[in-house]
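Let us work through a complete example step by step.
Step 1: write down the sequence.
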Amino acid sequence: MYELIKELGEKVKSGTLTWEQAAKSFNNQTNLNLTGNALRKRHSNLKEDTATMQNEVTKEEYEMHFANGSVELQKEIWFDENEKKTPESVLKKFGYDHKEWTLQSWRFGKWEVAIKDEEQNRVCTTIRAVIKPLLKTELRREEYMAIIKEEMSKAIKPIKLLSKPKQKGLDEDKLFEIPAIELHLGKLAWAGDTGQDYDQHIAQDRFYKIIQEIKYKQDIEKCSRAVLYIGNDFFNSDTVNNTTTAGTSQQNDVRWKKMFNVGLKLYKEAIKTLREQFNNIDVKLVQGNHGNMAEFYLYSALQQYFDNDKIINFSNDYKETQCYTFGKCAIFTNHGDPNLKRLMKSISTEFNEEWGKSTFRELHLGHLHKEMVVDDDSGLITRRVGSPSGTDAWHYHERFVGATQKHELFIWHKEYGMTTQYNINFESKKKVLTKEM
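Step 2: predict the structure and record it as tokens.
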């Protein structure tokens, strides 16, 4: 790893970094855990090793494998006179598949020897290189999602649900919108810190209440079709270390495996319940910033579970911004954490066809845990929906308090747009502790 150590050492020498900062950068790239002083010593030793290598470049070939999967090697490799020296060709000479490895750095020596061999007098050049391939090339988002979907399909067999006739008395002109429930499943809050309690059990109770309220409201509205969104920080964390997707630590009351299984169970039961209330349910993904990957896994697992069902229809569109059209209505969704102004301005461009065919347009966001109409301009209403999640210690400390803990439901009409909004409100909860004798 001498190239990286050399590069960081030069930055320290120029005053751009301190040794501690350089060590942090080094550790992030190598998955090691060196202190600034340890890195400084390696840099000092590197000068001696480099001098030795320059004097003895012809004496050794080596291949070193590191714990993070990278490989450092030096070999004599040969090229035809006119053969291009590309990362792919270098990897091939070393015996590594360029589809599975990538070169981080390489260096060609100045020692070149031209010889003649074979009847064609082929001219070859002796080249030595020090390279660091990575074990795997980084997958594109689409490739990654395709792999997960394929693995889910192998592990999860679709449930065989009884077919049911089309329900009579439901209005084909009405749509029931069920925004993604921003439950933050797994979050732990204690009343001693925040004035209220919140844990996986309270979260589950609130989820069940939302599903029950949907049933009650559907008895009144009698919509033929529903659109159900999944995501929007349904999970509180995304990693084995209880951090968000970006690495922010979270206080959880449940291990990550159990958290996922509880979430999967909740939505499996909910979808089977709602299936009896509507003639068609379209399901779409809206990933949040707390559990971006976990929510995609949840969506994929549910998609396989309800595969081939004639009532439940999962979308294969996994973009951060979604569009759902219904008559003259266009419903756009996004979690709403980055670049809100640019997001609002870009809707009409990204979805120009849907925009042109619609009269009533709304952009529904989550993220801030409070209901508000952000903007009502240029033919697009931008609305943030609330969250049933309780307040944790960090939000309390930063004074993000006071917002009503709630979940909204929306009723749309093909010709008249969004006609009704229902609010499901939750009171802050404190657990009652009993004294043990």
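Step 3: interpret the result. The radius of gyration is 29 Å.
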